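Before relying on records like the one below, remember that each one covers exactly one chain. Contacts with other chains, cofactors or solvent are not represented anywhere in the record.
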Amino acid sequence: MKTGVILPSFSNSPDEAIEVARIADTSGVDGVFAYDHVWPIGQPERPALSPFPLLGAIASETERVAVGTLVARVGLAPDEVLLSQFHALDLVTAGRVVAALGVGDRNSREENVAYGIAFRPIDERLGSLARCVSALKAAGIEVWVGSGHIGSKTVSVALDLGVAVNLWNAPVKDVAGQAVRSEVTWAGPLPRRSGVSERTATSELIETITTAGASWVILPWPAPLDAMVDAAAGTTETGTTEAAAAAVTEKPGTGESAHVAKR
């Protein structure tokens, strides 16, 4: 089991994101990830840092952690541009890239429209997704395909091309269902339950998602990094997993993470 943190990139400054990445690099967290949004969904008045310059800067400030997108959306830039950005990042990081890709949905459509970028039909976006996944995989870059549920067409692309599926805030049953078909990673907000500490909730979540078959658990910042590392290493005492499983099934969608609930 590996752990990751989604960086605080809805900001005018990269300083906090870079500092979080430094802490993650030294604390034992396995990866740091950046959203690919022009603004937080539904909040066009707020800023958002572009993922590739941010991750490039982080590469120079870290030594060990994987750096990745969660997720880079096909269609915001031509396929060739998106691929060149990943290839450049792979060189800068000496092979530490995780290229998580998605196709966007109606929630992200307004970002395209605002900048005069065509929001192409889903079949065209799926075609671009397949081309980019194939090219990145051929280049030896780790590739994930993002989805909100296991029945999506994007999951079919991942299965056809033999890459991992990243499920956003998916219930445990979906994680288990996908794990028998492919590698599956999980990202989403930490479920909040009355009377349960953040550390305990983190441990329970990681135990539950790991038992379901996921290879990664990724939480948005602020996240209890030490608790994540301990839980992934199996060194933390955890309570029963039933409550955590129920909390994940409810799909809380709170905080910044709610802005990327779908791919």
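Confidence is low (pLDDT under 50) at residues 235-241, 251-262.
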